[in-house]
Amino acid sequence: MSSPESSAYKATEAAPHDAVRRTEWPLYEIFIRGQHGLSHRHVGSLHAPDAERAMQNARDVYTRRKEGVSIWVVEASKITASSPDDKGHMYDPADDKVYRHPTFFDIPEEVGTM
Amino acid sequence: MYAQMVKSTGEGVRSLDEMDPQERAFQERIDANGKIEPKDWMPDGYRKTLIRQIGQHAHSEIVGQLPEGNWITRAPTLERKAILLAKVQDEAGHGLYLYCAAETLGVTRDQMTRDLLSGKMKYSSIFNYPTITWADMGAVGWLVDGAAIMNQVPLQRTSYGPYARAMVRICKEESFHQRQGFDIMMKMAKGTPEQKRMAQDALNRFWYPSLMMFGPSDAESVHSAQSMAWKIKMNSNDELRQKFVDLTAPQADYLGLTIPDENLKWNEEKGGYDFSEPDWDEFFDVLKGNGPCSVERLEDRNRAWDEGRWVREAMLAHADKKRAAKLAAE
Predict the structure, then answer these.
(1) What backbone torsions phi and psi does residue B157 show, to the nearest 5 degrees?
(2) For site-directed labelling of A106, which of A29, A65, A91, B257 has its Cα 20 to 30 A away?
(3) What percent of chain A has pLDDT over 90?
(4) Do the strands B272-274 and B265-267 form a parallel or antiparallel pair, or are they unpaired?
(5) Which domain of life does the UniProt lineage start with (chain A) (predicted)?
C-alpha cells in the first residue's frame, strides 16, 4: 500500500510532510425532496471528494428506502448560516406585525367562510 | 449500550442557582424540552461528553458490521444473503448519520477514526464476541438490535438536535434488523433438532453479553446523573435492562427456547421479571480490550483503513484533476 513517501499526489495524506496536506474529503450537506411534492429538506451530511461522488454517496446513505425523488448536494463550506446570537434582532420585527395573520381580523359570522 | 460507561464531567449536577446566566438559560431550555443546535452556546462538558457518546455509538455501528459481515458469504440462501447484506449496509449508514452528528460538535471524522483505530475511543463490548454459527445472525438481530432499540427509541428525544434527528432515522430502520433476526430464530427453532440446538446455543452465548450492553447499574453514578440532567441519557441502565428482559423473555418462550438463567422468574409484585446479573468482571475485562475478538476487530478496522488509503487519495486526486480541467475550459 502507499506509504507517506510513495504517493505521487500532492495535497493528500501521503504527500511529503512539507506540502499542504489534505487529509479529509470535504463535507457536503444533503437535501432530499420526498415523493409527495414537498420542498427539498435537509437530511444530513457526508464526505465526498467532489459533488458527483457526493451525489452517489447520498443515494446510498439517505435513500435506501425510497425516501426521495430528487437530491441536492451542497458543499458545507458554501453555506452561509444565520447565527443564534442574531435571534433577537433578526426576528424581532415580526413580533409587532400581528396583522399579518388572518386571525387578526374579526369577520362577522353572517359573512360566512372567508 | 452502544455507548457504554461514557464519562461526563464527574462533578455532579449543579443547581440552576449555581450556574452563570448563560448556562442557566441553556439548562432551562433543556428542562423545557427545547433542542440545542450546533451553533448554540453549550457548556464544554456537554460538548465533550456528547462527542464521546456519539462517537462511541458511531464506532459501534461500524465495528458492528464485522460479526455479521462474517456470514454474508455463507448465508444459507440467496434471499438470506441479500437481506443480511442490506442489514449490514444499514449499519454503515447508521455509523455515518452518527459521525455527521458528532462532527457538528467540532471534532473531525478523521480524528474520530484515528481514535477508534488507536483504541483510544471505545465501541460496544458486544461486538467483541464471535459469531460462529448462522444461528448467531438470528441471535444478534433479535437480542443485540433488540437491546439497542431499548436505548435508541428514548434517545430520539435527546436534547442535542443533530443527535436526536440521527436517532429518528436509525430507529426507523432498526425494527427491520430485529425482525430479520427473530425471523432467523423462528426458522431455526422450529426446524430440525440440530437447527434448534444451534438456536439454543446462540441464545446461550448471546444472552449475558446482551444484558451487559446496558452497562452496570448506574443508580449511583455522578456521570449518569449529569448526562440525564442534560438529557443526553434518558433512562438508567437498570431501567432499560429490565424493560429488555420483560419484552424478550416471552419471545424466547414463543420460540420454545430457554433463557440460560435459572433465576429468571416473573415477579408479580414488581410487574417484571427477576433475573441474574451478568458477570461484570467479564464486562470490564472486555472493555479493557480482552474480549474474545477484541484484537481481531481492531486489526480488521486498521487494515480496512490502511488498504483503503490509496482509494481515498486517488479519488481526491481525480477530483482535483477534473476541477482543474473544468477551470481551464472556462
Answers:
(1) -100, 10
(2) A91
(3) 50
(4) antiparallel
(5) Bacteria
The residue-averaged pLDDT of B127-144 equals 97
Residues of chain A numbered 58-97 and touching chain B (CB < 8 Å): 60-61, 64-65, 81, 83-84
Cα-to-chain-centroid distance, residue A60: 17
| B122 CA: distance to closest CA in chain A (Å) | 22
Residues B203-227 have pLDDT tens digits of: 999 999 999 999 999 888 888 999 9
The residues, ordered by sequence, that sit 6+ positions from B318 with a Cβ below 8 Å of its Cβ are: A49
Q: And the C-alpha cell for B233?
A: 441519557
The CA-based angle B126-B64-B205, given to 5 degrees, is 35
**Contact A11/B at CB under 8 A:** yes
How far are the Cα atoms of B8, B18, B19, B23, B235 from residue B15, in angstroms, in the given order? 16, 5, 7, 11, 20
DSSP string over B135-182: HHHHHIIIIIHHHHHHHHHHHTT-SBHHHHHHHHHHHHHHHHHHHHHH
- Cα angle A80-A85-A87, degrees, rounded to a multiple of 5: 85
Q: What is the pLDDT of residues B71-85, one digit of tens each?
A: 999 999 999 999 999
A4 lies within 8 A of chain B by CB: no
- Enter the pTM of the model: 0.90
Interchain CB distance below 8 Å, B312 and A13? yes
Helix (H, G, I), strand (E, B) or coil at B77: coil
Burial B90-120 (b: 16+ CB within 10 A, else e): bbebbbbbbbbbbbbbebebebbbebbbeee
Question: B316 to chain A: nearest residue by CA?
Answer: A49
- For residues B213 and B280, is the Cβ–Cβ distance under 8 A? no
Closest by Cβ to A1, choosing from B93, B307, B317: B307
Residue A45 host element (H or E): strand A41-47
Q: How many contacts does A have with B, using Cβ atoms within 8 A?
A: 70
Task: Compare CB distances from A2 to B40, B310, B316 and report the shortest one's residue.
Answer: B310
Distance of CA B130 to the CA centre of its chain: 17
- ipTM of the complex, rounded to two decimals: 0.88
Backbone phi, then psi, for A2, in 5-degree steps?
A: -70, 150
Provide the angle, in degrees to the nearest 10, between the axes of the packed helices B44-63 and B109-117.
60
Residues B303-326: what's their mean pLDDT? 92
Tell me what pLDDT residue B173 has: 92
